[in-house]
UniProtKB/TrEMBL annotation:
CDD domains: SRPBCC_CalC_Aha1-like. It comes from the Bacteria. This is Polyketide cyclase. Belongs to the AHA1 family. The lineage of its organism: Bacteria, Bacillati, Actinomycetota, Actinomycetes, Propionibacteriales. Residues 22-159 form the Activator of Hsp90 ATPase homologue 1/2-like C-terminal domain.
Length: 162
């Protein structure tokens, strides 16, 4: 299992997940840079993702939806704020309606994904910060830890397949 640590810090409104992959940093970067590869791992296995827009550069946006087992769709977006290829990117991740407009009833998380060489592979740190304790608690109650862990744990297979 790639996920090796999960830290939730309600006081600072942060969730930090750490994972270890048996692939170089550049290969992990390719997974996020290619929407077809990213679709294989963004979202848990029961809710695969489809990216309809993918622009991994500062100011870029990504629009996606996850499809549930009964065909229901859950829409989301990334607003990319920073890119340091292949080591780091930052983005705001939010829930959206079917037109990819932000859903004001659900929180937006500020995310920083960092990739570094470690023990012959890559150590990835996935950090999310929310505007309030209540916002973090809301996504925790929605199962973000379980969903993100299931999604991240798919990455090794995707990296091996190329």
């Amino acid at each position: 299992m790639p996920v090796i640590d999960v830290q939730k810090d309600l006081d600072n409104r942060r969730l930090v997940m750490t994972a270890q992959f048996a692939a170089p940093v550049e290969r992990l970067w390719q997974l996020y840079a290619d929407p077809r590869q990213l679709e294989r791992v963004w979202g848990p296995p029961t809710h695969p993702a489809t990216f309809v827009d993918h622009d991994l550069r500062p100011g870029g946006r990504m629009h996606y939806y996850m499809t549930g087992p009964d065909g229901e769709r859950y829409y989301g977006f990334w607003a990319v704020t920073e890119v340091d290829e292949p080591h780091r990117f930052a983005f705001d991740d939010g829930f959206a309606d079917e037109n990819f407009a932000a859903d004001p009833a659900l929180p937006v998380g500020r995310n920083v994904y960092t990739f570094a060489s470690h023990d012959g592979g890559t150590r990835a740190v996935f950090e999310s910060e929310y505007p309030t304790v209540e916002a973090l608690q809301q996504v925790l109650d929605m199962g973000v830890i379980e969903g993100a862990t299931a999604a991240i744990n798919q990455i090794d297979a995707a990296l091996a397949e190329g």
